[in-house]
Amino acid sequence: MSSLKFTAESSSNGMVERDFTVGDVPGVLWSPASGATDRTPLVLMGHGGGNHKKHPAMSGRARLLVAGCGFHVAVVDAPGHGDRPRTAHDEAEIAELFRARAAGEPEGPIVVRYNDHLAERAVPEYLALLDALQELPEIGTEGPVGYWGINMGTAIGIPLVAVEPRITAAVFGQHWPDVLAEKAKRITIPIEFDLQWDDEHISREEGLALFDAFASKEKSLHVNSGKHKELPRFEADSAVRFFARHLGGAATTAA
Amino acid sequence: MSSLKFTAESSSNGMVERDFTVGDVPGVLWSPASGATDRTPLVLMGHGGGNHKKHPAMSGRARLLVAGCGFHVAVVDAPGHGDRPRTAHDEAEIAELFRARAAGEPEGPIVVRYNDHLAERAVPEYLALLDALQELPEIGTEGPVGYWGINMGTAIGIPLVAVEPRITAAVFGQHWPDVLAEKAKRITIPIEFDLQWDDEHISREEGLALFDAFASKEKSLHVNSGKHKELPRFEADSAVRFFARHLGGAATTAA
Fold it and tell me: Which InterPro entries match (chains A, B) (predicted)?
């Protein structure tokens, strides 16, 4: 088991940011500057395809959870993303995606296949990450754990949550059901799921089929008008309230 | 044009409740006890079938909007509901609904037909209500106006909003698309729409078809697991945040 090594630390506006590695996987842990209390909830996040652990979508969501709820938030670079090297397979798949995009062909089949490959590499990394984070004295094993990832973050998160009982609430969204629906059927924790009604890549039927697959007794679907990249910012606030309801803590995020 | 006559007044926990009549239609107006300011938003609500203007769902939503946002909220008894007399037609339709329910037959065809009849009577009443409310000096014509009604409140609200340009944001949900979808196509204001994924009366396809019909550029669908009467209470908080976003005012509702 790899332990977590901190490599850098900074803080701003009440949030401490610590870069770390677990084995050769680089990540970032955001925590309240005021210090965490016992049983402080932890949210693991997964970034979107082509992005990285400190993309503004990640740091922005982290700020809502840390400043608004007093939670810890951790995210690692996915395989082939951010500060991590690309394999020849990564390069080939990315080239194929760009070729299809330029040719106006559907991206779905390539993204589904490549994300499945990335998830097979990333799930063991997230399991090791959670082990290592829970060894930190300021986190420990008592606090509840959530997962939040959209797009590629869902492709990694669904197989992760399907095998990891420590995660007890999750926010997913915007992915094709191929590969993932069978794994979603094994998930019973509360879920919030986002999809875009006018998504140019994922059809309504595909998005609804993935939401439908979760075995969760409590699940919510948030559909918004707009294209794939137009997920409204207020859905991040909604996700934070979802985690506050299920993991505890007071969401003080303004409307 | 009928003017509004107040018939009773009480207050509790920072909210003033005033009963009124407009013509022969009884209603209730809830307002902040601290007094309204210029351009204070107003939300008109429509209650559910078989309920009335002061059902806990109405007074509870009003408290969120008045105490949380400082808005005015008004609701009237629908025709044949609450303090209003039933016509022979009302009695016959209600008897038919109860018969179908006891026989295990689908309620949809009866509810769709009867709600359409009620909406034809109620829409002019809501238009007169809004005229009369805007004649009150503490409301006036400058503040933005919203509409919030689920179930029968949607059956009345969609034809109302389709013809009333003063209403600029609306929360609807849980109704069949028959009759209403054609009217929804004329609605372009921001919409939040609730449906239940396991509704025993309204199929998923029917619920989605009504959401899809709105011509609104900004529209959000909130689907939750559970049966017809199990709409989660946090959807009321979400609706309040929706009105705060679109009509102004600070939603201070806790998560």
Answer: AB_hydrolase_fold
Which tens digits make up the pLDDT trace of A63-113? 999 999 999 999 999 999 999 999 999 999 999 999 999 999 999 999 999
Please name the residue that has the structure tokens 């294209």: A227
In this structure, which topology does domain A4-247 adopt according to CATH?
Rossmann fold (3.40.50)
Which residue blocks in chain B are alpha helix, DSSP H?
56-69, 88-103, 108-135, 152-163, 180-184, 204-213, 234-247
CATH code of domain B4-84+120-247: 3.40.50.1820
Q: Tell me which amino acid residue B200 is.
A: E
Q: Which helix (H) or strand (E) holds A17?
A: strand A15-22
Query: What's the pLDDT tens digit per position in B62-71?
Result: 999 999 999 9
Give the three-class secondary structure for A233: coil
Query: Do A190 and A167 contact (CB within 8 A), yes or no?
Result: no
DSSP secondary structure code for residue B221 in this structure:
E
For helices A56-69 and A234-247, give the axis angle rounded to 10 degrees: 40
Spatial separation of the C-alpha atoms in residues B155 and B160, rounded to whole Å: 9
Indicate the residue of A220, A232, A237 with minimum beta-carbon distance to B224. A220
**Residue B2: its pLDDT value, please?**
77
Predicted ipTM? 0.90
DSSP assignment string, A53-91: TTSHHHHHHHHHHHHHH--EEEEEPPTTSTTSPPPHHHH
Tell which of B194, B237, B238 to mutate to test the A interface (max A CBs under 10 Å): B238
What are the φ/ψ torsions at residue A192 (nearest 5 degrees)? -115, 135
Compare CB distances from B234 to A223, A245, A254 and report the shortest one's residue.
A245
Instruction: Quote helix, strand, coil % in chain B, to nearest 5.
Output: 40, 25, 40
Taking one residue from A and the other from B, the number of pairs with CB-CB distance under 8 angstroms is 63
Pair B248, B240: CB distance under 8 Å? no
Q: Break chain A into its structural domains and give their ranges.
A: 4-247
DSSP, collapsed to helix, strand or coil, labels residue B75 as strand
Q: What is the pLDDT of residue B98?
A: 96
